[in-house]
Amino acid sequence: MLEDKDFIKSCDVPGPTKEAIRAIILYKSEVSNTDKVVDCGCGTGGITCEFSQRAREVISIDTNPEAIEVCRRNLEKFGLGDNVTLINDNGSNALKDIDNIDIAIVGGSGRELENILDVIHEKLNPKGRIIITAILVDTKVEAINKLKELGYNPKIMEANVSNGRVLDRGIMMISENPIAIITAKKR
Question: Of 52, 83, 144, 187, which has the fewest CB atoms closer than 10 Å, so is most exposed?
Answer without folding.
Answer: 187
